[in-house]
Amino acid sequence: MTFATHAYGLPESLEGQPYTLATYYLQAESDENADAKAASLAVGQSIGTWTEVPGVTPEMLAHHLARVTGVYEVPPVELRGQLPDGQRSYIVQIAFPEANFGDQLPLLLTTVLGNDISTAARIKLLDLRVSRELAGRLGGPRFGLEGIRQKTGVTDRALILKVLKPCTGFPPEAAVPWFEESARAGSDVIKDDELLADVSFNRLERRVRLFHETAERVYQETGHRALYCANITDRADRTLENLRRAAELGADLVMVNAVAAGLGTLQAVTAHSQLPVLAHFAGYNAMSEAPGSGLASPLLLGKLLRLAGADAVSFPSPYSAYPLLGENFARIARALRLPLFEIKPSLPVPGGGIHPATAARIVRELGNDVMLTVGGGIQGHPGGAGAGVRALHAALRAAAQGQPLAEAAKESPELAAALDRWPA
Fold it and tell me: Residue 165 belongs to what domain range?
């Protein structure tokens, strides 16, 4: 492409308009020119194609052509004798004019990760640095971390989210006793599993009515109000209709399987919802696990879901069977809470393999501003779901006070029983 030579630097024409800076990990064969590869990617993902075509004007080049701002080899090879056999690795940064995609996150992803077949490269998107202007148009969470805390009334500890188990296969009426027992014991939020939304044997409308009535009855009898989070995931139009029905019937939060449903669907929900929205991570691993392709998990589950408006984001715990690196676990949580222009922090919601011992460990690692997703670690307690919730409360109190769990267990038989089943 003859105009690939324009795809470098930040000339005044681009500096005068907002752009998103994409950072990639690029793999190339030893004899490939990484600079040319990066330029080809920048051109192909903005105004170019595999061959020169008529219609490309100087104005288009100035305002719509993406530009390479850096190519850095890792490790930094300087001499011919240092060249490795086989592949070489690079960090590449490309600036994309935000006029090319506006506030449309699906189009943003198509732009930065579409990887046009004519300019195909083995790349993994590590990060996106958006402009203040784009962050403002996207808006981020409406409620965010603090808004969910206000809704629960809990400000001094980690929140407990009870996920109803089994995952699916039961009618709504069967789950009422499980919901009630968890609510009476002090669960802050109770939610549907990601595998259950609006299905023939368990309709969303019936489930929301029953759970709302149960939560209200428990509140009148105990003074504790457990919030219900309904899974509204479906195709885009039905998801918005499910949102409307869930809100009218008394749901307190809603959940969207955000990776499976897509960022555009999540954006639509957060734009219309008057309830906090929890984004679930189901399916993210297909996009993030490969070292040389897809999106890095802190970007996908942290920054992008937050920018799309998720008030809370569910992501996997490293203490489950899933071998997530502990460093990435911490990076996802940081991406959800670090300052990002005027965007509110999202509430981190780790899940998977959480019981009292791992709950205390997560709080020590991430702090109190998390909501812990617990299913089997509550319902699998030897004393039942209520004892499981009380054991978690005891573990969280101990973690907040810096008290060893073994000492706390002397004052809590439920915690002691949990530690016997799931040792620290």
Answer: 144-421
